[in-house]
């Protein structure tokens, strides 16, 4: 791979406001359902009222009688739709459960779609569709009769070759200090503000899909497969995504159905699924269980670490996050033993949800580290220091690791030295004060990507890349990168993203987007610069010359230069780019290469718990994060803030409740699905710890979108213990769990 030239420090690293900020706040930015297809028909979904069994009959007479109804799609007239393989990653489908019946595999499975002239007619008719079912007993979650267990390493590629080192069992047996604890995390739903929406329009045999997507090339390829047509005939448009967090990364069962309906009716069809339908027609974060065993010396040095995880999934799909891959590498454990078990229940298939592999697993690890510190009578920060190391138990070295710098800076800002360690010993009137901390960690991914850049003689540049604006500010950092490399002002750069007609970028997941897109855009801009040099070499930086841009163009006798570039990270194969064009992304980095590439952080949290009512407040949080080069501190801070708030949500608020009798989600609306509001969040102090790591990718960027969401829940749980002496090992922590002291 080409080594990158040194990067000038001109444009990058500035806290530029988002280039599309104005469009967003004025409502001019157009999201999936904002596109006006001409004369659209409206679709409304009917979802299953049972979780397991089959459809015995459907009575559609009443529904058809509603004026304006055009067609009702059921399993009886959608047999032409093809199955798409469950992806479990960027490409493919969210689930292999795609048929509308007659078999029912989870509550809320799509069983029919009514299409009418108006939304109101479609909705009314949908409520008049009568389905009779033959129902079977259901297994909703862990411990239910009828669930089946499976070794994740045999069923899912992600869970193969999980880290193992030494003899963790005998090291545990002979350890001075032993900890053997279990933790649990609940199911959660992404609940993006933008609902699951799809508009499909056909013209001369070509299909255009307007849908919020984290991977437009994947959607294009998968929907083509679903319809049995050539991908070249599908165009996906998704310039803005109103919240995704993993749930819009693959083809979900609705999209092919909407496209199919539009074809049959020879008219554009628009679907906006309801909030409650979103709980079952897309993915979610499944509930997990953990058993952690740690054997340590009295000095705090850990000799043995075992982490077993259990994750719920659907009957057919082996979805796994398998975050032991990361928990087992975070510290210098002397020996490591890991295992993950999948538990198949009668549920929709789970999927990626912000910081998917690490969130539940690091909550368990970082709670256990706090429990170990208490057994050792040791400061929890010092316990991390004793076990800090530049290589993991398997002998893999870290590319860079600034964990203790993060701890030191955050501890100082927080005032950690003033903490009195005894639980319940810090108090302010009726309020018990608790201080807790935990590590944040997220793998540094980088993916194959392509881009096109064009510079005109008047000094304006346009960059094209099918990246995804999921809220992270990709247009802004790509524009900053181009402005810097081409030596022009940021205001002279325009960026097109979110369209499958542009060169492909990888799935906007796994926090790879900034690193991948900036790496390829840098390459495209450097190829433009190469034209201006006498001894042109592609890959060279803007030379420090004084010649004016228009004179350079004059010298070359052209009005514009356009370059296309492809970027392949280490581990990429010759056909990786072809696969990316075909909808299969390639992500490298993290723990997969010769070096461990991760962004790290430390979070400190104060809780105040009312001694009488047990009301829990979080008045302040400090997070320090080291993630290589920061392209834009303003958008970076924004990601960290949102992620820490989500962490508080995981700790104290969020859980999807399931009725075990019918395997149905109970609180499938934003009134009953609890998330923090402004009044729940007070001071958040973010520290960007400088770090340079040129080995992770050409731009030296470690992804940050998912980092700060990791560790927050454990930091809150550790603070709650410090305030009350009560260790809650099942999230979320609600006041009823703090009633017995
Ligand atoms: Mo993110 S859950 O990796 O889309």
Features:
five-stranded mixed sheet, globular, seven-stranded mixed sheet, 25% helix, alpha+beta, disordered N terminus, 741 residues, binds dioxothiomolybdenum(VI) ion
Draw up the topology in text:
Elements: H1 21-25, E1 41-47, E2 53-59, H2 61-64, E3 69-73, E4 103-104, E5 110-116, H3 119-128, E6 130-135, E7 148-151, H4 152-155, H5 168-173, E8 177-185, E9 197-203, E10 206-210, H6 216-227, E11 234-237, H7 253-265, E12 269-272, H8 275-281, E13 288-296, E14 302-313, H9 324-327, E15 336-344, H10 358-376, H11 380-386, H12 403-414, E16 427-428, E17 431-443, E18 445-447, E19 449-456, E20 461-464, H13 474-486, E21 493-496, H14 513-531, H15 549-556, E22 560-567, H16 576-581, E23 587-589, E24 598-610, E25 616-626, H17 633-652, E26 658-659, E27 664-665, E28 683-688, H18 712-724
Helix pairs in contact: 6-7, 10-18, 13-14, 17-18
This protein binds dioxothiomolybdenum(VI) ion.
């Amino acid at each position: 791979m080409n080594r990158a030239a040194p990067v000038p420090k001109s444009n990058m690293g500035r806290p530029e406001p988002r280039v599309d900020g104005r469009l967003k706040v004025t409502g001019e930015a157009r999201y999936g359902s904002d596109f006006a297809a001409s004369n659209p028909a409206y679709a409304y979904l009917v979802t299953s009222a049972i979780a397991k069994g089959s459809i015995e009959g459907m009575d559609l007479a009443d529904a058809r009688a509603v004026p304006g109804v055009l067609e009702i799609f059921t399993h009886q007239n959608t047999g032409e739709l093809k199955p798409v393989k469950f992806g479990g990653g960027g490409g493919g489908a969210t689930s292999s459960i795609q048929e509308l019946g007659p078999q029912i595999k989870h509550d809320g499975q799509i069983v029919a779609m009514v299409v009418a002239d108006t939304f109101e007619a479609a909705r009314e008719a949908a409520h008049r569709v009568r389905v009779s079912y033959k129902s079977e007993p259901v297994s909703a979650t862990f411990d239910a009769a009828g669930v089946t267990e499976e070794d994740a390493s045999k069923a899912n590629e992600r869970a193969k070759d999980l880290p193992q080192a030494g003899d963790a069992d005998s090291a545990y047996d002979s350890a001075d200090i032993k900890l053997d604890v279990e933790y649990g995390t609940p199911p959660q739903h992404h609940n993006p503000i933008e609902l699951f929406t799809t508009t499909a329009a056909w013209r001369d045999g070509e299909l255009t899909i307007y849908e919020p997507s984290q991977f437009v090339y994947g959607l294009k390829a998968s929907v083509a497969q679903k319809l049995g047509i050539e991908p070249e005939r599908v165009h996906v448009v998704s310039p803005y995504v109103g919240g995704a967090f993993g749930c819009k990364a693959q083809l979900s069962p609705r999209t092919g159905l909407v496209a199919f309906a539009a074809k049959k009716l020879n008219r554009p069809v628009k679907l906006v699924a309801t909030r409650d339908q979103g709980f079952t027609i897309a993915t979610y974060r499944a509930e997990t269980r953990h058993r952690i065993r740690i054997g340590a010396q009295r000095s705090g040095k850990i000799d043995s670490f075992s982490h077993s995880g259990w994750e719920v999934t659907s009957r057919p799909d082996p979805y796994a996050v398998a975050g032991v891959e990361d928990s087992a590498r975070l510290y210098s454990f002397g020996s490591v033993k890991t295992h993950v078990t999948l538990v198949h229940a009668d549920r929709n298939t789970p999927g990626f949800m912000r910081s998917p592999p690490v969130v539940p697993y690091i909550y368990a690890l970082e709670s256990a580290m706090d429990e170990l510190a208490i057994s050792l009578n040791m400061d929890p920060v010092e316990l991390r220091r004793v076990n800090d190391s530049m290589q993991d138990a398997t002998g893999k070295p870290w590319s860079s690791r600034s964990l203790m710098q993060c701890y030191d800076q955050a501890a100082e800002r927080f005032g950690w030295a003033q903490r009195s360690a005894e639980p319940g010993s810090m108090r302010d009137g009726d309020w018990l004060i608790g201080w807790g901390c935990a590590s944040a960690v997220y793998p540094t991914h980088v993916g194959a990507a392509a881009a096109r850049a064009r510079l005109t003689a008047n000094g304006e540049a346009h960059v094209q890349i099918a990246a995804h604006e999921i809220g992270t500010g990709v247009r802004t950092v790509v524009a900053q990168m181009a402005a810097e490399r081409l030596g022009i002002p940021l205001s002279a750069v325009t960026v097109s993203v979110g369209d499958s007609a542009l060169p492909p970028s990888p799935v906007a997941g796994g926090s790879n987007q900034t690193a991948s897109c900036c790496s390829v855009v840098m390459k495209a801009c450097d190829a433009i610069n190469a034209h201006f040099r006498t001894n042109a070499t592609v890959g060279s930086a803007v030379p420090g010359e004084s010649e004016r841009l228009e004179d350079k163009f004059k010298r070359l006798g052209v009005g514009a230069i356009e370059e296309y570039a492809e970027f392949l990270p280490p581990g990429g194969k010759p056909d990786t780019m072809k696969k990316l064009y075909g909808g299969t992304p390639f992500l490298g980095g993290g723990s997969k290469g010769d070096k461990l590439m991760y962004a790290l952080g430390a979070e400190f949290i104060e809780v105040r718990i009312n001694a009488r009512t047990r009301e829990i407040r979080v008045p302040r949080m400090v997070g320090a994060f080291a993630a290589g080069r920061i392209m834009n501190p303003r958008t970076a801070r924004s990601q960290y803030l949102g992620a820490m708030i989500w962490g508080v949500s995981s700790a104290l608020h969020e859980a999807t409740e399931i009725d075990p009798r019918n395997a149905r989600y109970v609180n499938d609306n934003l009134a009953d699905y609890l998330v923090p509001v402004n009044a729940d969040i007070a001071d958040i102090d973010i520290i960007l710890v400088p770090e340079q790591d040129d080995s992770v990718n050409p731009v030296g960027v470690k992804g940050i979108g998912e980092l700060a969401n990791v560790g927050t829940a454990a930091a809150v749980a550790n603070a709650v213990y410090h305030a009350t002496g009560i260790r809650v090992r099942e999230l979320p922590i609600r006041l009823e769990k703090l009633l017995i002291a």
